[in-house]
């Protein structure tokens, strides 16, 4: 074990000797702000739902609001397509991070406030502020990624690690808070009760009781606001810190800060960044980016990107409780936590092993999709999936969630690295396709889960299957 750790430390130092650790940290913190607000809102649902009039319809409303918020990335993508260079990318990022910070902070004060609409109380403040958070997070997909073009390729992987942490960190804080912690308590029920006590029977059942949180929902929202503020500070330093400026791939610097003319920025919008090893006389295989890939390969890459994001962002998360709760509350919490850990872990692996093989990408996508099919099958069979009464069933479902997230997260990072080499516009389209995949997943799963109620939830305390 000692020799393995020594090798790992040496390997890490060798690959980071020419890179600024400060820049890695800032890129990670910047990526962490991409989806931390919406991810935090999802994990807080068990505490929100009992105290608002929408009840468990709130997740459905959130899904609709998040898809409506795609107006943000649509606007940015159209601007890059038809008015390249006209949109100030840094200004847009400042605005959306500031909006996310303020909206998260206001949620701490107004999330329980209701307004009577058409004679029915509604959580208008919660829904409106959630929409703003969704606009922030959705728009980050088409602004944060292209901004990373200003740094060396290695930092894009670090950004993806931060994006993975944006799901892991709220989940860990929610665990500390005690969200969704259930204790199975004995309860008695009297059946066939008559005036003659001898004619009555008593049954003993286990009833799920949710435990009170260790700290309030208001504190959790203030934490999310603080995380957005950290992201804002990281973005400021990425723009103005001298040691970060030295990590730019090329350019002139004054006092360590890169100088850019409007002409250069316009060029960056329209032209891809050429790799130093690429021959100037190499024949272009398409007009996409540097011409390294044919249009068939570009289509293949984007289809996999949309598919992977549809599965990991919407399709499988929407049925996670159905696939895990029949195996017990511990299996559910463990699968959710370990899946959140698997995302940044896959990004960390990609930092050292960025294998850009299209064949490997396809193989990993097939493996991840196959594991996802197993998870979906268990959700369909809920509340009585395979091995529901066996310990091995819980172990398998947890491992399935880890492998599913691990493989497809690695695929997404490698696609990001490939498209980064194809230029600024390629990363804009990368973010747009990410949102398109999530949108298609939501359109597919919303009616199945929320309208037609196709899935049946398992009871964490009373799983009785034939």
TrEMBL record:
<feature type="transmembrane region" description="Helical">
    <location>
        <begin position="123"/>
        <end position="147"/>
    </location>
</feature>
<dbReference type="GO" id="GO:0005886">
    <property type="term" value="C:plasma membrane"/>
</dbReference>
<feature type="transmembrane region" description="Helical">
    <location>
        <begin position="358"/>
        <end position="381"/>
    </location>
</feature>
<dbReference type="Pfam" id="PF06237">
    <property type="entry name" value="SLC52_ribofla_tr"/>
</dbReference>
<feature type="transmembrane region" description="Helical">
    <location>
        <begin position="219"/>
        <end position="238"/>
    </location>
</feature>
<keyword id="KW-0813">Transport</keyword>
<comment type="function">
    <text>Plasma membrane transporter mediating the uptake by cells of the water soluble vitamin B2/riboflavin that plays a key role in biochemical oxidation-reduction reactions of the carbohydrate, lipid, and amino acid metabolism.</text>
</comment>
<keyword id="KW-0472">Membrane</keyword>
<dbReference type="GO" id="GO:0032217">
    <property type="term" value="F:riboflavin transmembrane transporter activity"/>
</dbReference>
<feature type="transmembrane region" description="Helical">
    <location>
        <begin position="426"/>
        <end position="455"/>
    </location>
</feature>
<comment type="similarity">
    <text>Belongs to the riboflavin transporter family.</text>
</comment>
<feature type="transmembrane region" description="Helical">
    <location>
        <begin position="21"/>
        <end position="38"/>
    </location>
</feature>
<protein>
    <recommendedName>
        <fullName>Riboflavin transporter</fullName>
    </recommendedName>
</protein>
<feature type="transmembrane region" description="Helical">
    <location>
        <begin position="331"/>
        <end position="353"/>
    </location>
</feature>
<keyword id="KW-1133">Transmembrane helix</keyword>
<feature type="transmembrane region" description="Helical">
    <location>
        <begin position="293"/>
        <end position="311"/>
    </location>
</feature>
<feature type="transmembrane region" description="Helical">
    <location>
        <begin position="91"/>
        <end position="111"/>
    </location>
</feature>
<feature type="transmembrane region" description="Helical">
    <location>
        <begin position="159"/>
        <end position="182"/>
    </location>
</feature>
<keyword id="KW-0812">Transmembrane</keyword>
<feature type="transmembrane region" description="Helical">
    <location>
        <begin position="393"/>
        <end position="419"/>
    </location>
</feature>
<keyword id="KW-1003">Cell membrane</keyword>
<feature type="transmembrane region" description="Helical">
    <location>
        <begin position="58"/>
        <end position="79"/>
    </location>
</feature>
<dbReference type="InterPro" id="IPR009357">
    <property type="entry name" value="Riboflavin_transptr"/>
</dbReference>
């Amino acid at each position: 074990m000692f020799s393995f750790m020594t090798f790992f430390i040496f390997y890490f130092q060798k690959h980071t000797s020419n890179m600024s650790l400060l820049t890695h940290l800032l890129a990670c913190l910047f990526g962490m702000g991409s989806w931390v607000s919406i991810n935090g809102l999802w994990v807080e649902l068990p505490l929100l739902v009992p105290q608002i009039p929408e009840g468990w319809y709130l997740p459905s409303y959130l899904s609709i609001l998040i898809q409506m918020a795609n107006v943000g990335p649509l606007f940015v993508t159209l601007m890059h397509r038809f008015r390249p260079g006209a949109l100030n990318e840094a200004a847009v990022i400042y605005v959306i991070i500031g909006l996310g910070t303020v909206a998260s902070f206001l949620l701490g004060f107004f999330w329980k406030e209701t307004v009577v609409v058409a004679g029915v109380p509604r959580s208008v403040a919660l829904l409106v502020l959630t929409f703003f958070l969704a606009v922030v997070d959705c728009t980050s997909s088409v602004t944060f990624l292209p901004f990373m073009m200003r740094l060396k390729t290695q930092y894009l992987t670090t950004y993806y690690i931060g994006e993975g942490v944006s799901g892991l960190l709220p989940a860990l804080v929610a665990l500390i808070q005690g969200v969704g912690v259930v204790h199975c308590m004995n309860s008695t029920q009297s059946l066939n009760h008559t005036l003659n006590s001898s004619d009555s029977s008593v049954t003993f059942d286990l009833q799920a009781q949710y435990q009170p949180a260790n700290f309030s929902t208001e504190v959790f929202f203030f934490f999310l606001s603080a995380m957005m503020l950290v992201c804002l500070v990281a973005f400021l330093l990425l723009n103005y810190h001298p040691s970060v400026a030295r990590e730019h791939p090329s350019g002139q610097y004054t006092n360590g800060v890169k100088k850019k003319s409007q002409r250069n920025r316009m060029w960056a919008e329209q032209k891809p960044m050429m790799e130093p090893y690429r021959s100037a006389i190499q024949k272009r295989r398409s007009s996409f980016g540097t011409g390294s890939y044919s249009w068939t390969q570009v289509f293949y890459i984007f289809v996999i990107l949309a598919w992977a994001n549809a599965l990991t962002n919407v399709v499988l998360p929407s049925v996670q409780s159905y696939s895990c709760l029949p195996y017990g509350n511990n299996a559910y919490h463990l699968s959710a936590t370990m899946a959140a850990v698997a995302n940044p872990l896959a990004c960390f692996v990609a930092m050292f092993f960025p294998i850009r093989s299209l064949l490997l990408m396809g193989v990993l996508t097939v493996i991840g999709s196959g594991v996802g099919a197993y998870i979906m099958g268990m959700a369909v069979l809920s509340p009585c999936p395979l091995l529901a009464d066996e310990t091995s069933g819980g172990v398998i479902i947890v491992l399935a969630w880890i492998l599913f997230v691990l493989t497809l997260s690695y695929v997404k990072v490698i696609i990001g690295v490939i498209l980064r080499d194809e230029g600024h516009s390629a990363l804009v389209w990368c973010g747009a396709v990410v949102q398109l995949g999530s949108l298609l997943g939501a359109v597919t799963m919303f009616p199945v889960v929320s309208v037609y109620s196709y899935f049946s939830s398992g009871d964490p305390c009373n799983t009785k299957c034939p």
